[in-house]
């Protein structure tokens, strides 16, 4: 079932949702550029040249040149951003609002003095509403085909990039992913929803968001101090991401939406492990960052619940896409303090057991246990619960099959864990014979 967007039917109203945001991203960023005196002067000196320096569609440029705010809104503009453009041109807010209603500034001001526009005659037409909710032809929809869980150790990326995969130290690690690469070749998804944590690459302490959904068209590879990894940039899926944002936020998950951000080893190492050395990643990727660096971090229960809501969001998307959800990070490791180097094989393998057999119970494990038993950075494992919550056996509507399991110590400072679960509908019970 498609998401309810009845707000689109309110007459004379454009709601700035995630779809409009994606459509108008560069238009609104252009408006933001006018917050300095230098840029305002440059714009007023040669409007067309200034606009041509931005990757705007011609319809967006024409709306601005024609001073057509309604057209700018249709093209994804938001009134708070466009107000900065209007201020640059010397327009008052009432002058801008009046222009969208066919009134002069004086006429609009007089209307407001008289009590404003009446809501009567400006509500949704019930005939239009009923037509919008009438049953339509069934359409294909997206489906989650499986989940991948893997560590995202930065040294693995360095070993790949510097041709060390056959060295005795590294060979056992990469042999553990040979099955995964073959499985991905046979099960290439249209989209990967990739859960990871940024490692002070895209987000520093000026901004510490808990959940960040990548809604952009592409994401460059971050320079983490050694130069960017020599791997392809990431192609996003802004349409599906906008749909997921709409669904998750309506389900009360507070997300930060990022149209631009660099992605670091937390995202690129899993891609390399699963897809190998490629010129272009074979599918689109939606990055989903979780803060597990600065406390408070989200609980396992919150992550598991988010995964369940994510499945609902993906399966309500009315395009027939194959989607995989990946949970990355961990396993046990500690990178700081006198306990640096901590590894707990027994706890890690018990975690893998419970992830398959008892994910709801595993989701109740408190942060203290992760830190004490798996090390301070072992808390990354809560991200695996997002991917696990997105599988259909959680609510009994389907089944999962373990396709691959791998565990190895060490990879640099970390225990490596890897699991592939295939998602499938529950087999129908055989009919009872009379």
UniProtKB/TrEMBL annotation:
Gene3D superfamilies (UniProt xref): Dioxygenase LigAB, LigA subunit, LigB-like
Extradiol ring-cleavage dioxygenase class III enzyme subunit B domain boundaries: 147-416
Highest taxon above the source species: Bacteria
Entry-linked InterPro entries: LigA_sf, PCA_LigA, Xdiol_dOase_LigA, Xdiol_dOase_suB
Ranges where the Extradiol ring-cleavage dioxygenase LigAB LigA subunit domain occurs: 27-113
Pfam families linked: LigA, LigB
Protein name, as recorded: Protocatechuate 4,5-dioxygenase
Species lineage: Bacteria, Bacillati, Actinomycetota, Actinomycetes, Kitasatosporales
């Amino acid at each position: 079932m498609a998401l309810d967007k009845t707000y689109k039917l309110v007459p004379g109203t454009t709601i700035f949702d995630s779809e409009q945001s994606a459509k108008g991203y560069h238009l609104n960023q252009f408006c933001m550029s006018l917050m300095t005196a230098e840029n305002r002067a440059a714009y007023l000196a040669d409007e067309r040249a200034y606009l041509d320096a931005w990757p705007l569609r011609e319809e967006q440029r024409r709306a601005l040149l024609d001073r057509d705010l309604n057209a700018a809104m249709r093209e994804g503009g938001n009134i708070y951003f466009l107000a900065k453009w209007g201020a640059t041109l010397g327009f008052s807010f009432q002058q801008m609002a009046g222009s969208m209603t066919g009134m002069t500034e004086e006429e609009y001001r007089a209307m407001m003095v008289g009590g404003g526009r009446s809501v009567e005659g400006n509500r949704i037409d019930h005939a239009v509403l009923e037509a919008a909710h009438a049953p339509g032809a069934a359409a294909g929809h997206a489906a989650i085909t499986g989940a991948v869980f893997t560590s995202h150790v930065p040294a693995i990326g360095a070993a790949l990039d510097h041709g060390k995969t056959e060295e005795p130290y590294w060979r056992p690690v990469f042999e553990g992913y040979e099955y995964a690469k073959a499985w991905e070749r046979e099960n290439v998804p249209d989209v990967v929803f990739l859960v990871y944590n940024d490692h002070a690459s895209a987000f520093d302490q000026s901004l510490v968001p808990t959940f960040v959904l990548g809604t952009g068209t592409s994401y460059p590879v971050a320079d983490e101090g050694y130069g960017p990894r020599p791997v392809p940039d990431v192609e996003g899926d802004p349409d599906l991401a906008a749909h997921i944002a709409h669904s998750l936020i309506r389900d009360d998950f507070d997300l930060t939406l990022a149209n631009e951000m660099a992605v670091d080893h937390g995202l690129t190492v899993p891609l390399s492990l699963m897809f190998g050395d490629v010129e272009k990643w074979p599918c689109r990727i939606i990055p989903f960052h979780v803060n597990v660096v600065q406390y408070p971090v989200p609980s396992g229960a919150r992550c598991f619940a988010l995964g369940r809501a994510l499945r609902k969001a993906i399966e309500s998307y009315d395009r027939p896409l194959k989607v995989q959800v990946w949970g990355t990070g961990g396993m046990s490791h500690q990178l700081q303090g006198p306990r640096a180097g901590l590894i707990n094989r027994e706890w890690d393998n018990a975690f893998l057991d419970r992830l398959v057999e008892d994910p709801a119970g595993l989701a109740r494990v408190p942060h203290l246990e992760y830190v004490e038993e798996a090390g301070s950075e072992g808390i990354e494992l809560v991200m695996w619960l997002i991917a696990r919550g997105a599988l259909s056996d959680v609510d009994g509507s389907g089944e999962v099959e373990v396709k691959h399991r791998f565990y190895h110590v060490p990879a640099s400072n970390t225990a490596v864990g890897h699991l592939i679960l295939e998602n499938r509908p529950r087999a129908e019970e055989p009919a009872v014979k009379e």
